[in-house]
Amino acid sequence: MFASYKNPMSKGHKRPGKRFLSVLILSYLCSSASKKSSFLFATAIALATLHIAHAAQCTPGNGGITLPPGFCASVFADNLGHARQLAVAPDGTVYVNTWSGEYYEGIPAPPGGFLIALQDSTGAGHPDRVTRFGPTAAQGNHGGTGIAIYKDGLYAETNDRIVRYQLPKTGGAPVDAAETVVSGLPLGGDHPMHPLMIDAEGHLLVDVGTATNACQPENRVPEVPGADPCRELQTRGGIWRFDANLRNQTFSPASRFATGLRNGEGFATDAEGRIFVTQHGRDQLWDDWPKLYSATQGQELPAEEIVELRPGADYGWPFCYFDNQQQKLVLAPEYGGDGGGKVGVCAAKQAPVAFFPAHWAPDDMKIYDGPMFPAAYQGGILIAFHGSWNRAPGPQGGYNVVFQPMVHGKPSGPFSVFADGFAGGLKQPTDAAFRPAGLAVAPDGALYIADDQKGRVWRVIFRPSAPTKVD
């Protein structure tokens, strides 16, 4: 029995639980008296091995972050470059998309491709194989944010396109050249990234963020009215839909799926098929319109949002923003708003299903559907907040991962902070130690969190022996 024992915490196995213990007990009861002694000795060693392996997967101090009771974290990988979003293959390989370019003010990227395959082939809780692939900076590439697995392919954003790599059957980095799925995606401006998701029907949904803050002809200039019509909405500020099974598609206004999203970086699908996307609320209400807003209002407005994604829906940008104090969409000052009193065209726009403090910057979102976390987390949403820069003169906020419980597509309670401490002592974009940017739920139920400041990836697990609390 002991010779054939396989650690259930190794790659490809779920965490040990009641079923594992039941098998041990049944085997003991069925064994002969002469074998019981050796069986008990082997079982004790097996359980001790499980405990050691389980504990070894947590870094002392959780790699600098705090978690609810019952959870712990390990530093799965580090110094990867600007790690944005993640995807985990069925075999446990973690794929990371990293980014460079003008967004990071010329900070050089690590050598090699911007895509990374992280393989933990030994079950040690950290990768023993780290392989970079894809185009390099020397080839004119700047990497990307979006990444997803669909069927046997890895889909990733790179510059102005979405490409597909055939996943190797043995895991790890792809060996075949990438195929272009979509090209010609808009670049430049305030939000040049292209996060993505692929639904069960093969629809490739791509976020195309806005080039401006509020569709002003002079971006972010005080008291400049917004353009009306906002021609930017033809090619920016929404979700575009393509077919993940086709190649060589070209971006065009005709492929727009939904509009009025300033920057929708995080996607998630619940068990009933609803698709949700985050919305980065606009900036600088007080800075640009000091006659209408106080400094405190500029700090606290507008909300960050989760919206339910529906075909043809309009979520309001640039004409509206969600006032979290009044809990309604109101008219933006660039389009005749008076500081929160007027509603106007916003009455016909789609309000969010959940909202969060202003300027926290939701950069990724996942619905927890894994087998590891307690039942209270099942079906709820985890959101990685990159952290604010626009809450001055007050303190900055975000730089955390929060949990929003959900039932049938609606919040079932207030959100709570799930993981914190990423920024360290200074919650400022350039001074923060780490900034959460990506999330992924692995087949075994572990949660991966990526940081784009230094390229750290944490692996968060639940320990069933520890006390658990969801605030």
Radius of gyration: 24 Å
Strand proportion: 25-35%
Flag low-confidence runs. 1-56
Q: In DSSP terms, counting alpha (H) and pi (I) runs of 4 or more, how many helices? A: 4
- What is the H level of CATH, i.e. the homologous superfamily of the largest domain? TolB, C-terminal domain
Our count of domains comes out at 2
Arithmetic mean pLDDT? 88
User: Order of strands in the sheet with the most strands?
Assistant: 6-7-8-9-13
Q: Alpha-carbon distance between the termini?
A: 43 Å
**How would you sum up the major sheet?**
5 strands, mixed
Describe this structure in words.
The chain is mainly beta and 471 residues long. It has two domains: 56 residues; 402 residues, TolB, C-terminal domain (Neuraminidase), CATH 2.120.10.30. The chain has four helices and 29 strands. A five-stranded mixed beta sheet has the order 6-7-8-9-13, with no helix packed on it. A four-stranded antiparallel beta sheet has the order 1-29-28-27, with no helix packed on it. It has a four-stranded antiparallel beta sheet with strand order 2-3-4-5, with no helix packed on it. A hairpin with a 2-residue loop joins strand 7 and strand 8. The longest helix is centred in the N-terminal third of the chain and has 24 residues. The radius of gyration is 24 Å and the shape is globular. The protein starts with 17 loop residues before the first helix and ends in a 9-residue tail after the last strand.
